[in-house]
Amino acid sequence: MLEALSLPFFQRVLLAGLLASVACGVIGTYVVAKRIASLSGGLSHAAFGGVGLGYLAGFPPIVGAAGFGLAAALIVGIAQRRFGSGLDTLISMVWAVGMALGIVFVALAPGYAPDLMSYLFGSLLFVPWEYVVAVAVLDAAILAAVLFFHRSFEAVCFDEEYAEVAGVRAEGLFLALLALAALAIVTLIRVVGVILAIALLTIPAAAARPWVETLRGMMGLAVAICAASMVGGLLLSYGLGESFEISIPPGPLVILLAAVLYLVSVGLRSVLERGARAAATAA
Amino acid sequence: MTAPAAELAGVSLSLRGNPVLEDVSLRIEAHDYLAVLGPNGGGKTSLLKILLGLLSPDRGSVRILGRPARRAHGQVGYVPQHVRFDLAFPIRVMDVVLMGRLGAARFGRIGAQDRAAAEAVLERVEIQGLAQRPIGALSGGQLQRVLIARALAQRPKLLLLDEPTASLDERIGRSVWELFEELSEEMAVVVVSHDVGAISRYVRSVACLNRRLHAHPSKELTPEILEATYGGPVDLLAHGHPHRVLEPHEDS
Questions:
Q1: Cα(first)–Cα(last) distance of chain B, in Å?
Q2: Looking at the complex, does the CB of residue B223 fall below 8 Å from at least one CB of chain A?
Q3: In this structure, what DSSP letter does residue B130 have?
Q4: Nearest to A163 among B95, B99, B134 (CB)
C-alpha cells in the first residue's frame, strides 16, 4: 500500500488532500460553532451546478464550482436575514436546484464526461497539478482572511446580534464567512467530491470539540483530524484497488475514517470524564 | 448641554399585522437608571431592538445619543439574556469581553490597551479571577457578569440590559443592582424586565410597557399602575418600599 507514496498521481492527490485539510479544519470550526452545517451543505451541492456549466461552456469545472458556490453563499446569506423560519426550505431548494442544474448542463454538453463521477465522490486519478496549485492558493486566501478577521468572525459566530450593536459589521462578516465556506468546499471537490464535502467541514471540527477550549485550538486539532482521515482514506482507496481489485473512490473512505475518529474522540472523552468523576468520588 | 441618551417620539410598530408598540414616547437622560417593566408579549423585546437599532419602527422618530439608532452602534452597551447562550461554544471569558472592543478596534485588531481595558472591567464586575475560564464552566450569574463586562468594555454612554434578574439569587460580591446604580453616574442604564418586585427597589424611575408606554418620573408603583400594565392584579408583597399613590393612567 505504501508504494503508492512514490507514484506521481498519488503524490498529487495526497498533497491536494492535505492542503484541503487546512481549509476544512479552519472553516469547519466556524461552520460547527455557528451551526451552519446545512447551509454549507447547500453551498457544496449548488457548486455542482457550476461543475456542469464548466463542462457545457468549456471552462474548468472548478472555476464554475467556485462561482456557483459563491453565488449561492450570497443568496442564502442575504436571505438568512430576511426569511427567518423560511430559510430551511430555501437551503434545500438551493441544494437540489444546484445538483439539477449540474446534471442538465452535463447532459447538454457534447461528448462523454469521463471524470464526472470524480466531482461527485472524489477520485485518486483526476487530480492535476493545476488543481493542487489552486488548492494552495485558496488555502492562502482563507488563512489570510482568518488571521486578519478571526476575532470578528468569532464574535459573529458567538453572538451576531451583540456584534452588530457593538459596531462590528456583522452582516458583511457573515457573508464573508459563507464565501470562505464555499471556497473551502472547492478545495475538497476533486478529492472527496461535492456530495461528501460537507462531512469534512463538520466531522473533524466536531471530533476536535471535546478536547479544546478555544476556536483556535479547535481549528488546529480539526486540521490534524481531517489530514489523518485524508491520508488513511486515500491509502485505503489505493490499497483496496491494488490488492483486492475493489474500486472505491477515496471520498467515502475518507469520510468513514473521519466518522470513526469522531466516535473514538467522543467515546474516549466520556470514558476519561467518567474516570475522573469516579476518582473524585473515591477521594 | 448633552443630548439625551435616547429619545423616542410617537413610535409605533406592527409585526406580521399585529400592533406591538403604539405611540410610544420616551426620553432617557444621560444619567438615568430606568426600568421598563411589562408582561411578556407587551413589546419589551421590540422596544429593546428599536433602541439597539436592530428594528425600525413603522412610525415615529428614534434618536439614540442624538443620532439615528444605527449610527449609535458601538456607543450602546447591550447585555442580552444569558440563558440564550450556547455554553458548548469553545471560548474563554477574556475573549468574550474583548468582543466589546471590536467596534472601536481598526479592522478588528486587538491591542495591549484593549486587554488592559478588558481586565479593568472584569475587576469592576468582580470576576477578574475567571478571565481564562471557558464559558461552559461558569454559573448563570457569572456568565451574566461576563456579558455585563463585555458591554462595559465598549465604554458605552447607554447600557441596555435584557432581563438581568436571573443572577439575583447569586452572591458574587455586591449585587449587580448596586453596580448599575454606580454606573448610572457615567452612563444611562436601562433595565428591561417582566419581574416587577426585584427591580423597582433599586432603579430611579420606572416605565410600564404593554403596547403603550406609561412613564413615571419616580419609581413608586401602585397596584393600579401595575394592573393597567399587566391587565390583572399583581402581587406587590415582596416590595419593601412605601408606595405613593399616583394618578391612574388616562386610558386605563
A1: 36
A2: no
A3: G
A4: B99
CB contact under 8 Å between B154 and A213, yes or no, is no
- In the 3-class helix/strand/coil scheme, how is B37-90 assigned residue by residue? ECCCCCCHHHHHHHHCCCCCCCEEEEEECCECHHHHCCCEEEECCHHHCCCCCC
DSSP strand E in A107-165: where? Answer: none
Give the ipTM. 0.86
Distance of CA A176 to the CA centre of its chain: 16
Least confident of A13-27, A264-278, B1-15: B1-15
Going by the DSSP 8-state scheme, the letter that residue B242 receives in this structure is -
Go through B140-177 and write b for each residue having 16 or more CB atoms within 10 A of its CB, e for each that does not: ebbbbbbbbbbbbbbbbbbbbbbbbbbbeeeebeeebb
Distances (CA, A) of A233 to A8, A193, A255: 17, 13, 8
State whether the Cα torsion A190-A191-A197-A201 is positive or negative. Answer: negative
- Burial (Cβ within 10 Å: 0-12, 13-18, ≥19) of residue B233: exposed
Hey, what domains does chain A have and what are their CATH numbers? 2-277 (1.10.3470.10)
Cell of B246: 399616583
For residue A81, the one-letter residue type is R
CA A189 to chain centre: 9
Q: Cα separation of B84 and A137, whole Å?
A: 39
Write phi, then psi, for B26 (nearest 5 degrees): -155, 135
Residue A88 to residue B57: CA distance in whole angstroms = 27
In chain B, what are the helix, strand and coil shares in percent, each to the nearest 5?
35, 25, 40
Query: Mind telling me how many Å the CA of A26 is from chain B's nearest CA?
Result: 14
Nearest to A165 among B76, B89, B108 (CB): B76
User: Any bridge partners for residue B190, and if so which?
Assistant: B34, B160
Output the furthest CA–CA distance in chain B (Å, rounded). Answer: 55
- Are B99 and A162 inside 8 Å of each other by CB? yes
All cell numbers assigned to B51 = 433602541
B69-114 residue pLDDT tens: 888 888 899 998 877 788 889 999 999 999 999 888 776 678 888 9
Q: Is the dihedral of CA B210, B214, B218, B222 positive or negative?
A: negative
Instruction: Kindly give, in sequence order, each residue whose CB lies less than 8 Å from that of residue B101, ignoring residues fewer than 6 positions away.
Output: B110, B114, B117, B118, B153, B154
Query: Which residue of B80, B89, B104 is in closest CB contact with A33?
Result: B89
Run of H or E residues at B160: strand B158-162
Q: What tens digit of pLDDT does each residue of A27-62 get?
A: 999 999 999 888 899 999 999 999 999 888 888 888
Domains of chain B: 1-75+158-252 (3.40.50.300), 84-155 (no CATH)
